[in-house]
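SAMPLE LOG
Freezer: B-3
Tube label: C17
Construct: single chain, 144 aa
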Amino acid sequence: MGSVRKASAWLGLVDDSDDERYYDDDYAEGPEPSDAWVTDPRVRVADEAAQDQGTRIATVTPDGFRDARTIGELFREGVPVIVNLTTMEPGDAKRVVDFAAGLTFGLRGSIERVATRVFLLTPADYQIVSGDAGRASGGFFNQS
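STRUCTURE (predicted):
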């Protein structure tokens, strides 16, 4: 139905019951998928495979301290979490770091600063491999 026709029907100038013929009942209503925002089915398949293998890593950029719950829930599920605090106020960022430190201590995980105001929280069964080991031994490009 066109916008002029919709406006006319809303005002009661025309009868809009004849426009029902354009709708197909099979497509008008149906079950919505749980991840309705995912448009590419390959993304859903990759996410399901990652959950099965336990190879997910979450990235969280909190707006305020109220987003700390999301960090905690992901970490409790055993998912490593990268917390980006660059957009937060310094006071709230400090509270989130304190929360993350307590969370990792309580669940026997670890917290590591990756960059300025960016932290990596890893559960107890993960091992962090530092990239500094390659530089110390001369690196890949050392051809001498």
